[in-house]
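sanity check this record:

:::
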Amino acid sequence: MKDETDIKKLAKLSHIEVSEEEEESLKSDIDSILSYVQQIQDISAEITPEKGILRNVMREDNEPHEAGLYSKEILNEAPNVKDGYIEVRKIINQDK
């Protein structure tokens, strides 16, 4: 932070009263926050398109089980079943 006048301006903009003791505490807090934000900006600037690409990493399914092997057990544990499927409450409304 440049100086105490910046803290006073921020306090005025925030509509809060700040005592002189609080100003010193806020000054160090704000300096630490701004330093942290600068670190994040520096790291963000280092990300290249190759590094920034997000993708799912899936394991190879080397020993898949037979399809339907556990279906009955799973359906028996479900609270509501309809036509061989687990019935869930509708949560998406597509009315426009």
